[in-house]
Design brief:
mainly alpha, 67% helix
Length: 211
């Protein structure tokens, strides 16, 4: 049975696609409600969409960014033996659904590109659509310490089958990469809102992982 958050997400999807997209919206929401998920859930999707709304003025194509936000974690499986990443599988799903919705070819291509860009969050200086999506996805890093620690615990729970030393090493490598960038966030607004807190949170988690 769906909760209020799931129903609210479906309403947002229909507002984006129109009523003909409702059946795809239901399937998408169910993707984020899969029982193995702990962080990449409907709560995460709602948060990303909210931040996209906040940053949309900095995007060249806000609808493309919104579609990409919907699909960016549609496929999220850990330890699956496949040559395709979750991001690639999510992008292919997005492209297939948007084609079924008769979306313009350029929109389909842009959404697929944006979803794939979330694999490493390395966004070019002129990629305003990618900047807004990446910043929305990474905005959790700039939360208050208690919220960040909850996020980190949820990520660990998703990777619960990975042995502790392996997880800590891999996680610390990812966080160091983010912390080593000249800016974690690509939009001016996100830097103002999240950059300082994100750097403090990342440094604190790295210390916990490696201490």
């Amino acid at each position: 049975m769906w909760d209020e958050a799931a129903e609210a997400l479906l309403e947002r999807w229909i507002a984006l696609t129109g009523p003909n997209g409702a059946k795809y919206g239901r399937k998408l929401v169910d993707c984020y409600r899969e029982p193995h998920r702990r962080y990449h859930t409907t709560e995460h999707l709602t948060h990303v969409l909210d931040v996209v709304d906040l940053l949309e003025a900095e995007a060249a194509q806000p609808p493309a960014v919104r579609y990409a936000a919907w699909f960016h974690d549609a496929v999220y499986e850990i330890g699956v033996d496949t040559r395709l990443t979750n991001e690639e599988r999510s992008a292919r799903l997005a492209e297939a659904v948007l084609r079924e919705l008769d979306a313009p070819i350029d929109l389909v291509a842009e959404v697929g590109r944006l979803v794939r860009s979330t694999a490493d969050h390395r966004i070019g200086p002129s990629d305003t659509n990618g900047a807004v999506l990446s910043d929305a996805d990474l905005s959790v890093l700039g939360g208050i310490p208690e919220d960040y620690q909850r996020y980190a615990a949820q990520v660990r729970a998703e990777y619960r089958e990975i042995p502790g030393p392996q997880f800590r090493s891999g996680r610390a490598t990812i966080l160091r990469d983010l912390l080593g960038r000249s800016a974690i966030y690509r939009t001016q607004r996100a830097r103002e809102l999240f950059e300082l807190a994100a750097r403090e949170n990342l440094a604190a988690e790295i210390a916990r992982l490696t201490g």
